[in-house]
Amino acid sequence: MSDRTVELEILRYDPEKDEMPRFETYTVPYRDDWVVLDAINYVKAELDRTLSYRWSCHMAVCGSCGMVVNGEPVLACHAFLRDYPARIRIEPLANFPVERDLVVVIDDFIDKLGSVKPYVVAKEEKSVDEGEYIQTPGELARFKQYTACINCLLCYSACPQYALNESFVGPAALALAHRYNMDSRDVGRSAREDVVASNPGIWECSFVGACSEVCPKSVDPAAAIQQTKIASTADYFLNFLTPWKKT
Amino acid sequence: MSRRPYKREVSKGGWWLTQPRYIRYMAREFSCALIGAYVLVLVTGLWRLSEGPAQYEAWLARVESPAGRLFAVVAMLFALYHTYTWFQVTPKAMPLAVNGKKVPGAVIVLGHWAGLAVASVLVWLLVVN
Questions:
Q1: pTM of the prediction?
Q2: Minimal CA separation from B4 to chain A, in Å
Q3: Can you give the CATH number for the domain in which A16 is found?
Q4: Contact A98 B5 (CB under 8 A)
Q5: Do A208 and B93 lie within an 8 Å CB cutoff?
Q6: Does B40 share its domain with B74?
Q7: Which of A62, A107, B47, B118 has the most CB atoms around its CB within 10 Å?
Q8: Does residue A246 form part of some domain?
């Protein structure tokens, strides 16, 4: 362990004792290769066992350790201490209720994610014996970047639209809807439309673009939403011009 | 164990001052107000033109006054910023693929600037001649 230390100002909230959240400061010695999550683990192991937070993989895959570090939503396992000043403020993800300390209640997102049917809706269900659903590399390339979403919710924390209007379906759920809409094996687009093409869906987005800037997996939800807006607008005019064809 | 999730309030009026990226977004959105104001000035000019040469000349004098010129410069700066921001995001909204290969975003952005340049030259030729 080096003699370099960092001051962590961590938001604490105990629903059984605290009226509202408060900050507590811990001094943590650290090494150059430590990330914020390592420092928080140190606090838990050595300084204060009551600290609550979520984490699992420590390699930016599971999406559990999303937090706000110095005002920016990041994965704590993906944020090196050496890139920060000597005092770091750590808060839970913004725009979600705080359950305890750095743990937030994500039920709203889980409900919204389910509402966009984030799975392949196949034209005909096939048994395993009948073989796989074939897809070319070109067809895969159309949506592959959107499959990288790990539901870490940094995008919801960065989105001012979601902050001001809780009914907004939000970046990750809409990006995943787009991912399945673009999948050549999927026929679920019209079934998703009630949620996706509604006002609380894509039309609530005013393209701030913060979601894409903070996304640790380069999913680019803002792009997905704008593309869905264009497709939905084309649908509207096509329906208008060809009323006999029900899409 | 009792659950009592705490909801942290977001400032309804001041949220956009909390992050540079939100300020940039608001600047982009605000730029359309100046473009709108400039369009109003032009429409007023057309209206004055329909009222006769004297009214039109008076409108022209106001537009060419120092204050009028300053407004035009400020409106143009905002219009350029508006154009820049929207051209930057076009590859996101309208990605292109040719023969299954993704066209680089920079090419789409440059294409838009080239289109704007051509349109500007055409309009300029139309006005000058």
A1: 0.91
A2: 5
A3: 3.10.20.30
A4: yes
A5: no
A6: yes
A7: A62
A8: no
